[in-house]
Amino acid sequence: MELINFSYLVANEIVSTTVPDDALLLFGNPDSTRDDGYKTWAIEFTSFKNELVSDLYDSFLGTNSTVTQQTAISTAVTLNAASGRITTVSSTLAAGSNVAFTVNNSEVTTTSTILLTVEHPGAGIPVVTIDAPPANGSFVIRIYNIDTNPFNNTLTINFLVIN
Fold first, then answer.
1. CA dist 68 to 12, 33, 54, 153, Å?
2. DSSP assigned state of 52
3. pLDDT higher for 128 or 24?
4. Of 53, 75, 117, 139, which has the fewest CB atoms closer than 10 Å, so is most exposed?
5. Same domain? 144 vs 85
């Protein structure tokens, strides 16, 4: 087992970490300023679960915003932040059904990448996707219930806007 050392910036302070290489999930992002063409990021694999999006944002940028949906599962929400947590209304979305709602967000542009995760403690199996390419100031989340049971609780959807 090898050890991997990496550093990152948190609140303008450099933080260095050493971890075993079998505990990491590595991924890269194009960076033409490097000899190898990529800057590599690492996520501790043991924390790679539903909280991934909010954990990443908290680790690198330090805040997370929340909003609770009102009225219906299709009701739009507004959350002007690069990262957030949306709690939906309690839903009884039928098995095999889907629904969409708009997230109004001033951080979003037409070239933004939106990452999503979902938490759901009740019946049904939710899958969340971005419904279409984002617009300036908004994106649309589509929720699918891929189970044979209807939902019976709220969903918590975490998002991260990458510009």
1. 31, 41, 16, 14
2. H
3. 128
4. 75
5. yes
